[in-house]
């Protein structure tokens, strides 16, 4: 049976597989006209607010990859820097290798005071994370393919010693659909998942689970036959718990 979550107010929230979530994104963009950057801005803003609360004035390190997950993390770094936080972005590749929305977010971030560390300057990953009050994990989301490799894997290993970790959408290294980790994976204090919880979040170690509103209108869910009741009631994010 498909796992279900519920909000603390008792509103049922269906979980979706990575494939279903990709369809939600596709319908939102191709059929409804919502831009990826619009959704990402809400993801990044929500993530920045959560990181800021957890960091309580301390240093924040954002780990980011090249996909939609990384783009949300880089966007969060901008909101954090705009708000005066001491924030360092650590990329799992060189900045000039970023593409699409992640590259765009990185370009905008360059206009803030945030420190940006590229893959070739990472060196000892643990050094960057050592004094962090919170590490934001935005390396890989539902786009995980096989066991984590390369610098992403090294950075994930370094999060084991972090004071607090907040994961965006899905802990990096965890399969969003099954909850299995084929290799190393982040073990976060909090996971902030986007729009709808992913089925794997009911199985994996995800910490406390938050659901963020990224502005998807219900017509997208209706188009796909997803039984959806608005869980937010005007809030930007809500806590979820397992229902089944
Ligand atoms: N409606 C929504 O939920 C929205 C979600 N967003 C975020 O976008 C990601 C999904 O984005 P996508 O680009 O499809 O994939 P990812 O970013 O998760 O991953 C691609 C990224 O990861 C690297 N990678 C994949 N597997 C591995 C591996 N085994 N080892 C190392 N690296 C790996 C790959 O190279 C790419 O760089 C979703 O989770 C949300 O966070 C949107 O931002 C808004 C709408
Ligand atoms: K992640």
Structure explained in plain terms:
Helix 6 (150-158) links the parallel strand 6 (134-138) and strand 7 (165-168). A ten-stranded mixed β-sheet has the order 2-1-10-9-8-7-6-3-4-5, with helices on one face. The mean pLDDT is 96. The N and C termini lie close together (9 Å). Helix 3 packs parallel to helix 4 (100-109). With 244 residues, it is an alpha/beta fold. Helices cover 33% and strands 18% of the residues. It has a single domain (33-212), classed as Rossmann fold, CATH 3.40.50. Residues 69, 137-141, 167-170, 172 line the site of potassium ion (K).
Compact overview of the structure:
With 244 residues, the chain is of the alpha/beta class. It contains seven helices and ten strands.
Which descriptors apply to this entry?
binds potassium ion, alpha/beta, 7 helices, 244 residues, binds ligand LP7C6HRI, 10-stranded mixed beta sheet, Rossmann fold
